[in-house]
Automatic annotation (TrEMBL):
Acts in the modification of cell walls via demethylesterification of cell wall pectin. Residues 1-21 form the signal peptide. It holds the Pfam family Pectinesterase. Keywords: Aspartyl esterase, Cell wall, Cell wall biogenesis/degradation, Glycoprotein, Hydrolase, Secreted, Signal. Belongs to the pectinesterase family. GO terms for molecular function: pectinesterase activity. PROSITE patterns: PECTINESTERASE_1, PECTINESTERASE_2. It is an enzyme of class 3 (hydrolase). It comes from the Eukaryota. Its EC number is 3.1.1.11. PANTHER family: ACYL-COA THIOESTER HYDROLASE YBHC-RELATED (PTHR31321), PECTINESTERASE 10-RELATED (PTHR31321:SF76). Pathway: Glycan metabolism; pectin degradation; 2-dehydro-3-deoxy-D-gluconate from pectin: step 1/5. This is Pectinesterase.
Length: 328
């Protein structure tokens, strides 16, 4: 039985507008902000800065007005960090194939991601974040290890038309409310992980499982208690690639991951979901759902009996944008 799910037409970014009242927004495919200042980054020296790090560092501490940073096409070999006291930054590249940020950090994974953001109210568009330590996976000289491309730790953060490339632990969706739209996320093992409260809409999940020679895991969510509001929701996404993969395994006991109206190619293992524990008590704490999905990997007949236990009313709470749009 499926209930027609009607989401109220509120957007995450409209909430930013209401709470800020200084940001006129246009709901086209691209976000348009009335930036108080636009900084140009260009490796050829014709902009204000030649590195993205220098541009971000030029934003005054405790910034309260939207500042736009336009990053001209190029491969930027650097690490970029947005500290907590630099909110309201909108970084726009020339497209995910044109503007790339690349580095190869692995240890400690907390501090070596190519991109790390701690501030609230951050919007990124048209940029790829790459951790090249194990990427491209085929032919990589390095043994597989945790190599994070982006770690997102600020609240109210949105990515449009962005790419995240790695092999293990590509995207650390660490904490806070996040929205990913029209993005591509690539990897093989736990490559979307953390305790974020996030909606991924119309995104491509690109699995490079052949590179590891065993079954991988798309997600590893880290909800620790029943009070936590965190969860990963994939809506109208596309899962493809090579090898074999699970939809997810838990990082912590109350992990919550939902795939809704998502295409799944035949790379999904029939069991679909992995549990950390074999006791039914522990398995019952997990919220792992794939509902109204389609494609050869979406047959749920062999999914474990502890998966897919949300009723339509419960599901509706997660697949609507209000899941990440409400305060508290
Ligand atoms: C942007 O803000 C300025 C100053 O507040 C205003 O004059 C201008 O009309 C605004 N532009 C747009 C496109 O809203
Ligand atoms: C920014 O705000 C924080 C918290 O209010 C304050 O502790 C800090 O000194 C401020 N920084 C600057 C450079 O004004
Ligand atoms: C990481 O990148 C640096 C700088 O580009 C390079 O010198 C180094 O060889 C790379 N290390 C690995 C293990 O790929
Ligand atoms: C789903 O899988 C089961 C068991 O493997 C099979 O019997 C059934 O025909 C499949 N359903 C569809 C729609 O392919």
């Amino acid at each position: 039985m499926s209930l027609l799910i009607i989401c109220r037409f509120i957007s995450f970014l409209l909430a930013l507008e209401v709470s800020m009242a200084i940001v006129p927004l246009d709901f086209g495919p691209k976000v348009q902000l009335n930036c108080s200042n636009t900084i140009h980054v260009d490796q050829s020296g014709r902009g204000n800065f030649e590195s993205i790090k220098a541009a971000v560092d030029s934003v005054p501490p405790n910034n309260s007005q939207w500042i736009c940073i336009y990053v001209k096409q190029g491969v930027y070999k650097e690490r970029v960090f947005i500290s907590r006291d630099r909110p309201f930054i909108y970084i726009v590249g020339d497209g995910l194939r044109q503007t790339q940020i690349v580095s190869n950090g692995t240890d400690p994974i907390d501090a070596t991601a190519t991109f790390i953001t701690h501030a609230a109210n951050i919007i990124i568009q048209g940029i790829s974040f790459i951790n090249s330590y194990n990427y491209p996976a085929i032919g990589s000289p390095n043994p597989m290890t945790q190599a994070v491309a982006a770690k997102i730790e600020g609240d109210k953060t949105a990515f449009y038309e962005c790419g995240f490339y790695g092999l293990q632990d590509t995207l650390w969706d660490h904490s806070g409310r996040h929205y990913f739209k029209d993005c591509i996320i690539e990897g093989a093992v736990d490559f979307i992980f953390g305790a974020g409260q996030s909606i991924y809409e119309n995104c491509v999940i690109s699995v490079v499982g052949e590179a590891i020679g065993s079954e991988g895991f798309i997600t590893s969510h880290s909800r620790q208690s029943p009070e936590e509001t965190s969860g990963f929701v994939f809506k109208h996404c596309y899962i493809g690639g090579n090898g074999k993969t699970y939809l997810g395994r838990p990082w912590r006991k109350y992990a919550r991951v939902i795939y809704y109206k998502t295409f799944m190619s035949n790379i999904i293992v029939p069991h679909g979901w992995a549990a950390a524990s074999s006791t039914s008590q522990d398995q019952g704490l997990l919220t792992f759902v794939d509902d109204e999905c389609f494609g050869p990997g979406a047959n749920t007949s062999e999914r474990p009996d502890w998966a897919n236990k949300l009723n339509p009313e419960e599901l509706q709470k997660f697949v609507c944008i209000s899941y990440i749009n409400s305060d508290g």
